[in-house]
Amino acid sequence: MFRQSTNDMEVPLCVDLDGPLVRTDLLVESWFALLKSSASLAFLAPFWLIIGKARLKHEIAHRVDLDVQSLPYDSAFLEYLRDQHRQGRQLVLTTASHEKYAKQVAEHLGIFNEVMASNAQTNFSGAEKHRLLVVRFGDGGFDYAGNSRADIEIFPHARRAILVDPESGVEQTARRFGNVERVFRHEVSGFAAYVRAMRPHQWIKNLLVFVPLAAAHELGNLALFGQAILAFVAFGLCASSVYLLNDLLDLPADRSHTRKRSRPFASGTASVKVGAVLVPCLLAAAAGLATILPTAFLAALALYYVTTLAYSFSLKGKVMVDVLVLAGLYTLRILAGAAAVAIAPSFWLLAFSMFLFLSLAMVKRYSELLELMGAGKKSAKGRGYEVTDLVTVQSLGAAGGYCAVLVLALYINSDDVRISYARPEMIWLLCPLLLYWISRMWQRAGRGEMHDDPIVFALKDRISRWVGGAFVVVMVAADWA
After folding, report:
1. Which 3 state secondary structure label does DSSP give 163?
2. Which terminus of the chain has a smaller tally of CB atoms within 10 A, N or C?
3. By three-state DSSP, how is residue 15 classified?
4. What is d(CA 155, CA 113) in angstroms, rounded to the nearest whole number?
5. Which residues, 6 or more positions from 241, have their beta carbon under 8 angstroms from its beta carbon?
C-alpha cells in the first residue's frame, strides 16, 4: 500500500493519460483506426491539422471509437492511483487526448474525480495545459504525473512531480526543479521490441525467391545468386513494413487475442508513434533495393505490397478469399524471384505452389478456429469464420495439400523432369515424403499443437526439419550424374 500524509491527500494529483497511464498514444491509435475504417477520411488528417491539432483530434474522435478496456495500462502506476483513490485523494485526468476518450477511460477505471482534456477548440498540451492547471489549482497547488518533454513546462509549477517511464532526458531535467517524488519504471524492450515487431523470423518465407534459380539449376551462378539475395532482402523489408502496418491496424483485435496481446504495439512495449514512422521507412528501403533489379521485380514487389494492403484493410475478413490471397502471396514470392533473375517459372512450379500454400493457409485458419472453440468463443474478431467452419476448413485444406502431391506426381512423369535430371526416378521419393508431411501437419493441427503460422511451426518442428533435409538429399541424388 502507498501511504501519504493527510496534507498530501488534500493536494489533487493530476495524471497524464498517454504514456504514464496507458503505454500508447491515443491520437496515433485513433488515426490508424480511422485509416482502417475509411482510408479516404484518414488522409484528410493533414488538412484538419492545418486548422489546428485540437481540430485534428476532434475530427478523428468524432468518427472513431476506441476500446478503452483493452488499452495497455501501466499496471504498477494504476495500482498506485487506485490506492490513492481508496485513501480519498482527488485524482484528475489531465490529457492532451480528446475528451471523448479521456472520459471513457475515466468511466472505465472509476478512480478519477475530474477530467481535463482536449476538445474542438483547445489542445490541452504543453503550455496550454500548464496555464489551465495553474488557473484551476494555483501555482504549486497540485501534484503532476507525466513522462514527456511537453510535461517539462508543467513540472516546475507542480508541488511534486511523479515520473512514469520518462522519455529520454525528461527525468534529468525534472530533477533540476527539486520536486520529483518518485519514478515508476517498467521493463522497456527498446530496439529489440521493434525488431520483434518486424518479425525477421518470417523472412524465411522469402527464401521462395530462390526457388526459380534452384529449379533452373543456376544456384552456382554468382551474378544471379547476388540478384536473388537483393530480392530476398527487398522482400523482407517490404514484408516487415506490412507486418508493422498490420499490427497498428489490428490493435483492438490483437488485444482481445490470448496470444497476440503480447505483440509489441498491442502490449505497449513498442511505441505506436515510432511504428508509424518505421512503416514508410522500411518500404522506401525495399523500393530502393528493388530499383537495382529488373523492372519486373519492382512491379512484382509493388503488386505484393498492394495485395497485402488489400488483405490488411479488407480481404482478411472475407471467408475463403483470405486463404486464397495468402496462398497467392506465397506464389507471388516465387514469381518475384523469377523476375529478379530473369528466369521464367514453369507451370508445374506455380500450380504446385498454389495448392501447397493454400493448404498451409487453411492450417493457419483451422488452428485459430480450434483455439477459439477451446476458449468458448463462436467467431473470431475481424474475421468471417465461425467455429462451425472447422470441418469445412479441414477438408478443403487437406484436399489442397493432396492436390499439391498430385501436381508433383504429374510433373515427375513429364518430359521436363527427364530433360532436367540425370536420375529422374529418384524424384518419386518426394511424393511419399510430401504426403507424410502434409498429413502430419493436419494431424498436429487437429490436436491443437500447431502454431498459428505453420511455416514457423515447421521451422521449430524436428520431424519437419528431417523431412526438409530428405527433400534436399533426394533432389541432389536425382541431379547427380
Report:
1. strand
2. C
3. strand
4. 21
5. 278, 279, 280, 282, 283, 286, 305
- Summarised one tens digit per residue, pLDDT across range 226-281 is 999 999 999 999 999 999 998 999 888 888 877 788 889 998 888 999 999 999 99
> What are the structural domains of the chain?
6-184 (3.40.50.1000), 191-479 (1.10.357.140)
Residue spans of beta strands (DSSP E) within 99-191 = 114-118, 143-146, 161-164, 180-184
- The residue written with cell numbers 491443437 in the block is 448
Beta bridge partners of 108: none
Per the CB < 8 A criterion, the answer to whether 48 and 56 are in contact is yes
3-state SS assignment for residue 96: strand
Q: Mark out the alpha helices in 216-346 (DSSP H runs).
A: 222-249, 251-255, 264-267, 272-290, 295-313, 321-341
HSE-CB at 440 with a 13 A cutoff on CA atoms is 15
Distance, in Å, from the CA atom of 476 to the CA atom of 141, rounded to the nearest integer, reads 79
Helix/strand/coil for 440 = helix
Q: Residue 136 is placed in which grid cell?
A: 484551476
Query: 307 in helix, strand or coil?
Result: helix
R_g of the chain computed on alpha carbons: 27
What is the amino acid identity at position 338?
A: A
Classified as helix, coil or strand, 353 is helix
pTM value?
0.82
Q: For 429-469, what is each residue's pLDDT tens digit? A: 999 999 999 999 999 998 888 866 788 888 888 999 999 99
Question: Given phi > 0 = left and psi -120 to 50 = alpha, else beta, which region is 341?
Answer: alpha
